[in-house]
């Protein structure tokens, strides 16, 4: 779901994930927040709510002083 062209371009909401997975929006939001906590996703917060995006910067080492 997160690697579809639309999701890469526009992100997705908990409602989008809920419809895709067939679960309640609150449960989908918990899954998305858990994935964010593991570094798999990043979120954008706007007046429209949370939109999640795949984390394309996972490979970067935050401890690398030459970054």
TrEMBL record:
Family, similarity comment: Belongs to the VPS36 family.
Organism: Capsicum baccatum (Peruvian pepper)
Molecular function (Gene Ontology), one example: ubiquitin binding
Localization per record: Cytoplasm; Endosome
InterPro entries listed in its UniProt record: Vps36 (IPR037855), WH-like_DNA-bd_sf (IPR036388), WH_DNA-bd_sf (IPR036390)
GO process annotations (BP): protein transport to vacuole involved in ubiquitin-dependent protein catabolic process via the multivesicular body sorting pathway
Function comment: Component of the ESCRT-II complex (endosomal sorting complex required for transport II), which is required for multivesicular body (MVB) formation and sorting of endosomal cargo proteins into MVBs.
Assembly and oligomerization: Component of the endosomal sorting complex required for transport II (ESCRT-II).
Coarse class of the protein's main subcellular location: cytoplasm
Entry protein name: Vacuolar protein-sorting-associated protein 36
Gene Ontology cellular-component annotations: ESCRT II complex; late endosome membrane
Keywords: Cytoplasm, Endosome, Protein transport, Transport
UniProt lineage: Eukaryota, Viridiplantae, Streptophyta, Embryophyta, Tracheophyta
SUPFAM superfamilies: Winged helix' DNA-binding domain
């Amino acid at each position: 779901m997160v690697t579809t062209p639309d999701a890469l371009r526009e992100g997705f909401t908990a409602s989008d994930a809920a419809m895709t997975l067939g679960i309640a929006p609150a449960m989908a939001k918990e899954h998305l927040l858990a994935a964010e906590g593991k570094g798999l996703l990043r979120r954008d917060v706007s007046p429209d709510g949370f939109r999640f995006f795949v984390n394309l910067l996972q490979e970067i080492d935050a401890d690398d002083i030459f970054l």
